[in-house]
Amino acid sequence: MLKGFVTFVWSMLLVAPALAMQPPAGQSEFRPMSEVPPSEQLPAAPLLIAAYVFFLLAVLFYVWTIWRRLNKVEADIRALDQKTRAAR
Amino acid sequence: MKKIFTPLVIATAVLFAAALVLIARVPPESTMGLVQKIFYFHVPSWIGMYAGIAVCAVASISYLVTGRPAADRLATSGAELTVLFGLVGLVTGPLWARKAWGVWWQWDARLTIALLLWLIFVAYLVVRKYGGPGAEKLAAAVALFGTAVSPFVYMSVNIWRTVHPLTSVMPQLPKSAPEMVPPMAASAFAFLLLFGVLLIARIELGRRQAAVDELYLAHEEGAA
Amino acid sequence: MGPQREVKMFFRVALLVLRKDFAIEAKSREILTTTLLFAVSCVLVFAFALVKEGEAPPDAAPAILWIAIMFSGTLALGRTFERERYGETLRALLLAPAPRPALYVGKLLGIVLLLGVAELVLVPLVAFFFGAPFFVQPVLMALLLVAGTVGFAAVGTLFAAMLMRVRTRDVLLPILLYPITVPVIIAGVRGTAALLASPPDEVTATMWLAIVVAFDVVFVTLSLWTFEVLMTE
Questions:
Q1: C-alpha distance from residue C142 to each of B110, C152, C192 (Å)
Q2: How confident is the model at residue A33 (pLDDT cuts 50, 70, 90)?
Q3: Which pLDDT does position C40 carry in this prediction?
Q4: pLDDT band per the 50, 70, 90 thresholds, residue C1
Q5: Which residue from A26, C121, C173, C207 has the fewest beta carbons nearer than 10 Å?
């Protein structure tokens, strides 16, 4: 179970360089926004990046909370196990 | 269940990678430009939120009727995912709106409705956390009422908003742009898979927590 | 017991609960007086916050009216059930061989009546302070107020009853109640605003009234069912 999580987190992190190495084909020629001056295009990028990064952070955070709670449960089981053994 | 989990995780990651590649490659939409690409994650996050609401609502009704703890665990998991995906939608929406409309928040009908539903399921989680013992049934009632009110919210907020029409309406996925379908479809499926993966994980957590609680009780009784 | 007798029993129990609450309240009038005073101070706070150079923004009057109703309603709900909790009376009522939903209806009627009295004071008061012609269309206005109050109280009574034994009940009640009663607030304010327009927009007001009535039907029914389920502990 925990292994599955670690796999998941690493897979997500590995996606990023995989994406970076792909050139966005077809974007250099097709620009229908020719009327809009290029200066108006730039402010979009930080918002776009912020959106995707937020998604990633939110999911990672949630995964982390599950992982943390799972750890706590396993620690509780171990503690209970010890108590039961000591009581015998 | 456990055997499916790791392959599902890998499938989710692969699908996300594919979706991101498709999103990067698709040409920007002609009227909105680059920022429109937020849509490819914004729209599927609503799919995730409404899937969470459906899970939580059905499980809550089941819990109220049958009282089975498994239904309660499913309901909690659904609520947590509702809040997670809803939060992503509520943050990515204004990020898009800032560029497209110039303001962060314009009380757009769809965003407002989503915000209200999101708040109801945040309240669900708050009740579970701070409601003391026996709060599970109250929380289930909140989920039930929240689902029952959604048609009313939908109706009243839509009418409320059309009195002061927006200068620009949040557009639908343009039907005349078939090149947008592959990235959106890939992203939507990736989100659904992610929802499934997280749901399975969260349910498993709930199951283990319940098992530990039972062990504690058995231990107490054994010691007494 | 035949169905006709069951229905009679149901209403008799509901009225008993209502009479009990009324009798207790009539002696001290504590909840009524304090709720009224709270509503008035609420209106004053809004007045000082919103009035600029002697004028309130347009549509302020309906908004203030409904917000004052919701806020005072929230407090009244909390305190009505506080009284039950204090006297352990609810447990006694639950032990009695009375149909559970009848208890809910009795409590609901009590809250609606209490808020109704508060509105009798609030509506003229807001009309006075903000020059709002609330009485141009008295029937529609009254219907809208009644329907809105019932809708708000229907959900509120259920949640307040459920929260009775919860430590954080005072703050949890608004957290739960407000998002779910948003349609009532929207419909109430926009419907009232439509009635205040010149000439009064009866069509719009009736549409909003219909929405609130539908809300009432759905949520009283849902609350009756849920009350039964939740009170079995």
A1: 32, 15, 10
A2: very low
A3: 93
A4: low
A5: A26
User: Among the residues of C56-97, which ranges form H helices?
Assistant: 60-87, 89-95
- For the segment B52-59, the average pLDDT, to the nearest whole number, is 97
A4, A43, A48 ranked by CB distance to B9: nearest? A4
Which residue, B47, B30, B35, is CA-closest to B97?
B35
Contacts of C20 (CB under 8 A, 6+ apart): C106
CB nearest to B153's CB, from C166, C175, C182: C182
Chain-chain contact of B212 with A76 (C-beta, under 8 angstroms): yes
Determine the residue of chain A that is closest to B224 in CA distance. Answer: A87
Q: Give residue limits of the domains in chain A.
A: 1-11+55-88
B20 vs B55 pLDDT, higher one:
B55
Nearest to B16 among A15, A45, A62 (CB): A15
Q: Taking CB atoms and an 8 Å limit, are A73 and B212 in contact across chains? A: yes
How many Å lie between the alpha carbon of B210 and the closest alpha carbon of chain C? 20
Nearest by CB to B156, from C180, C187, C233: name it: C187
Number of Cβ pairs closer than 8 Å across B and C?
A: 82
Return the domain boundaries, chain B: 43-162+192-224
CB half-sphere exposure, C155, CA atoms < 13 A = 32
Residue with the two structure tokens 């930080």: A46
CA distance C216 to C148: 8
Mark yes or no for CB contact B138/C230 under 8 Å.
yes
Mean pLDDT over the full length of chain B: 88
| Nearest CA-CA partner of C225 in C154, C169, C172, C173 | C154
pTM summary value: 0.86
What domain range is C68 assigned to? Answer: 3-230
Please tell me the total count of domains within chain C.
Answer: 1
Give the pLDDT confidence of B86-135 residue by residue, as tens digits.
999 999 999 988 888 788 888 888 899 999 999 999 999 999 999 888 78
* Contacts with B213 from chain A: Cβ below 8 Å: none
Report the pLDDT value the prediction gives residue B26, as an integer from 0 to 100: 82
Contact call for residues B41 and B121 (beta carbons, < 8 A): no
- pLDDT range class, residue B154, cuts 50, 70, 90: very high
Nearest chain B residue to C170, by CA: B131
Confidence band for A32, pLDDT divided at 50, 70 and 90: very low
Q: Is the peptide bond before B151 cis (omega within 30 degrees of 0)?
A: no
Output the pLDDT for position B100.
Answer: 80
CA distance C93 to C168: 24
**Angle ∠(C208,C209,C212) on CA atoms, nearest 5:** 90
B92 touches chain A (CB under 8 A): yes
Comparing CA positions, the residue from B85, B60, B64 lying closest to residue B74 is B60
**Structure tokens of B60?**
């809550």
